[in-house]
Structure formats: structure tokens, C-alpha cells
């Protein structure tokens, strides 16, 4: 039998008697891809056609391959998976980023 433990409160989760929730978090580097300024005087379809015809040129093909490999190397992905019991799931769903905890600290008006 597989045993599950809540990753938040460390309580044993009996999957036969209660729901078990899985939280999956994926973190990716946000790439800042510049949006091209489109010039109304430029024939975009003609430029695309010229680009596609030039793909047979080995130098252009090598340049595209080097750009592709450089972008893949720069990406750092992180994937995390957490098991939660029903109580911790409710708390997580209310405040997934934990921001309300910082706001709960109150100071007197002295």
C-alpha cells in the first residue's frame, strides 16, 4: 500500500478515507521577446517568402540552428510537486502565494 504524507503539515493522508490533493508548480524563465514594429510600407508576405526560399542556404540554416540551441540552453525550468491533505488544500487555495500572512501582521496606531 502506498503511504502519502501532506507536504505542508506532515500529517499522514489515508487515501482510502479522505481526498489527497496534488499541487504542481512549474517555474519558467520569462523571455523578453521584442515585438517587431510592423511597417505598413513593407510587404510582410514577400519578406516571409524570401526568408523561406533562403532556408536552403546552409549559412542561414546554421544561423537558425545556433539561435535555437542558444534559446534552449538559456531556459531553466523547475517543476515541483506537493501532496496536500484536505485542510492544507483549503488553506492553499485561499492564499496560494502566502501574501495574506504578511498583511496579517498588525501594528498599533501609537
Structure report:
The chain has 110 residues and is an alpha+beta fold. It has two domains: 1-29 and 77-103, no CATH class; 39-74. It is built from four helices and four strands; from the N terminus they run E-E-E-H-H-E-H-H. It has helices spanning 44-53, 58-74, 86-94, 99-103, and strands at residues 4-5, 12-13, 21-27, 78-84. It starts with a strand and ends in a 7-residue tail after the last helix. The model has no long low-confidence stretch (mean pLDDT 76).
Placed side by side, the strands forming the largest sheet appear as 1-2
Distance between the termini: 58 Å
Poorly predicted segments: none
Number of domains: 2
Q: Secondary-structure element sequence?
A: EEEHHEHH
Helical/strand content category: alpha+beta
